[in-house]
């Protein structure tokens, strides 16, 4: 990660910590005023948000460290560990909410000062939604799994808060006390789904999952277009590591071609691929024509 990109990512991660603490404070006040179990569950999730934001800050900072002898490919995968942690924390938050909801089903109670409490919770949710939108947009530009995971986590919190606000409002208006824990339980189910999806995506990164098929098709097309003078490219492989995309393949050239000529072809292919994937790390192994497999990428 370049220094300017590192600075932007770190600033965003610090912003997430500040926003999460502010939102937690607002939700805690809302719960203290109303005594609603749904608002208590919402506040519990915000505690997880603070921990997840701190984890994202640590991951973004560590992942930007340059490559060294022990980590010759850099530290970008550190962001996936943060994303896995956030997914696990989301699931923990959902289970805490379900526990509180079950207790409220058994012993329902009417919320107090519902109007003020809901207004405060709505402000907290608006802050969360605005920051999640900003964080997701910037995280995609910086290709930061940690920031994107944090944004996904905040969106799940926004959904939770919306359900809680509706539930507490209906309880206050209708006096139907079981609506409070019911909606808390339903939103917990949505959070569980979000957490499992985030875990799936993060584990895929840790397991060197290949780029999407559409991206691979584009990569193959670029190689075919830019490899004029070569015969074919085969054994094309890809993997993601944080914001980096690692590509490697074998390029078959005529046996009489000079090293400089084959190197020029490689430079042309690399330039085109990096124009498409600016964080691509490319390794090309040049082979003579006798190594052709007739099942790779034919040169146009």
Automatic annotation (TrEMBL):
Task: Provide the Cation efflux protein transmembrane domain boundaries.
Answer: 16-207
Q: Does the keyword Transport apply?
A: yes
Under the heading SUPFAM superfamilies, the entry gives:
Cation efflux protein cytoplasmic domain-like, Cation efflux protein transmembrane domain-like
Its record classes its membrane topology as:
Multi-pass membrane protein
Q: Is the keyword Methyltransferase in the record?
A: no
Name where it's found.
Answer: Membrane
Q: Where is the Cation efflux protein cytoplasmic domain?
A: 212-289
Principal localization reads membrane
Residue intervals passing through the bilayer:
12-34, 46-68, 80-102, 114-133, 154-175
Q: Which NCBIfam families match?
A: CDF
Name this polypeptide is given:
Cation diffusion facilitator family transporter
Species of origin reads Roseomonas alba
